[in-house]
Amino acid sequence: MIIEPLSIPRIAEVIALTNTGAPHLLPRTRSDYWAYATLFSTTCPVAMIDQRVVGSVIAFRSQDDPDDIYIQDVITHPDYRRRGITRTLIDTVAGRGVEWGCRRLYLTSEPDNVSAHAAWTALGFTNAAGDYEVGGISVITDYKGPGRSRAVYELPLDPA
User: Fold this and answer.
1) CA–CA dist 104, 21 (Å, integer)
2) How many whole angstroms separate alpha carbon 3 and alpha carbon 65?
3) Domains in the chain, CATH or no CATH each
4) Rounded to whole angstroms, how far apart are CA atoms 70 and 50?
5) Gap between the Cα atoms of 70 and 94, Å rounded
6) Cα angle 71, 97, 95; round to 5
7) Which of 62, 64, 102, 130 is the most exposed place for a label (fewest CB within 10 A)?
């Protein structure tokens, strides 16, 4: 497996890969991926096997709190799951965060996405306390705006 930053020539492959994440994950626009590849590539790694994109993370350092890196999207091709690809991609982003002195990675998930909850907790993320629970998963009401309640997951980084 080779990990490389997202680049413009890989955009179509990442969009195709992201299409495999429905219904919980859908691709963004080509313009969005252009911005990720040109402005945020060091926190948007892709995993390559046999010159094929099999995993991708889209993440950004927060402008409001530069101690944080927000992970927007994570996808591993269904044929390549359970091979450590997601862990390697998250470790890549975490490594960048440590280099920058960031204190945490965080992400949000649909409250009913039980498989995502299992993946995040297996990777060391904790489910942040919310104001109610869905199936044992803590949820914050209106986290991403009215009607957009989310489960929030955090992974502390040790910038030492």
Assistant:
1) 25
2) 27
3) 2-156 (3.40.630.30)
4) 29
5) 11
6) 100
7) 64
Question: What one-letter code names the amino acid at 17?
Answer: L
At 131-151, the pLDDT tens digits run: 999 999 999 999 989 989 999
What would the 3-class secondary structure string for 83-141 be?
CCHHHHHHHHHHHHHHHHCCCEEEEEECCCCHHHHHHHHHCCCEECCCCEEECCEEEEC
Q: Which two tokens stand for residue 113?
A: 């996405």
CB-CB neighbours of 37 under 10 Å: 19
Assess whether pLDDT exceeds 90 at residue 159.
no
Nearest CA among 6, 157, 140, 3 for reference residue 73: 6
Distance between first and last Cα of the chain: 28
Q: What is the pLDDT of residues 64-117, one digit of tens each?
A: 899 999 999 999 999 999 999 999 999 999 999 999 999 999 999 999 888 899
Q: CA-CA distances (angstroms) from residue 43 to 3, 79, 84, 128, 150?
A: 11, 24, 18, 23, 22
